[in-house]
User: What shape does this take?
Amino acid sequence: MLRKIGILTSGGDSPGMNAAIRAVTRTALANGIEVVGIRDGYKGLVEGLYEPFTRSSVSETIARGGTILGSARLPEFKEEAVLMRGIEKLKENKIDAVVVIGGDGTYRGADSLTRHGVNCVALPGTIDNDIEGTDYTIGFDTALNTVVECVDKLRDTSNSHHRCSVVEVMGNRCGDLAIYSGISCGAEILITPETGYDEEAVLEKLRYLENQGKNHAIVIVSENVCDVKSLADKISKVTGFAGRATILGHIQRGGSPTPSDRVLASRMGAKAVELLVAGIGGHCVAIRNNEIISMPIEECVSMPRSSRKAFYRLFDRLV
Ligand code: F6P
Assistant: This one.
């Protein structure tokens, strides 16, 4: 019998997490299930940072970025002793099941808890869109909107000054923010984990574009693939463009969630509670072809990365 569920957010925050917390809370309460907000992710779960949630605990939160529960990364949750301390705390507080919202690491924690008898359901909350099995993660659309707004602004000034803007976006080994923003902003060059980095090829392409009469250029780079500052300096030295580097950084994680993210989070939050009510744990929620589905976490975390080749082909055709 499911009487009380906990909810936590873990890993890097993402816009829409609050909408998901709200949906979980209100769906559970409507089913006569008590809700406990767990602060600061798995750290709070282990330390017992628990707070009873009512309908009004989540009032006025749907439009807010960040997470009202706070978030943290706790790699030690993989250790058996730490996990067991967490399970003890949940038992002491009579929490029967937990909904977790976060990325890959968050999913693994939920799977371990389920294997030790505490049913958990995971929701994909990350701006990176790097979770397999789901078309979109909560927060990706908002982050993409932020990137596009910034790059559009850079394009204005880059155009006025015959410059090449080299823009670094986040993504955690996944090029989705880069490829989606590259197509949206009409960027000239993309450098992502999928494309790899060939400095000479980038410079060559810029020289070619210049010869074609291009007045300015935008290069979008996924974090950790190359050093945007060095690339911008090199561009200034060996092409006719003046290179300028911009690292968008954590601004991509903030802001009010877009309506798309709010709806996605609300649908997924409600589904998480439905699964737990049906006695299903160890699952993660996903959206595929606009349908909310679920699958075992184990299956999701071992899926190979789906191909983005069609996106890259489209990008190339449009330059
Ligand atoms: O996973 C979200 C993310 O913003 C990644 O895009 C980025 O690599 C990482 O988190 C940054 O982590 P931190 O906030 O710890 O600097």
Q: What stands out?
A: Residues 141-254 form a domain with the Rossmann fold fold (CATH 3.40.50.460).
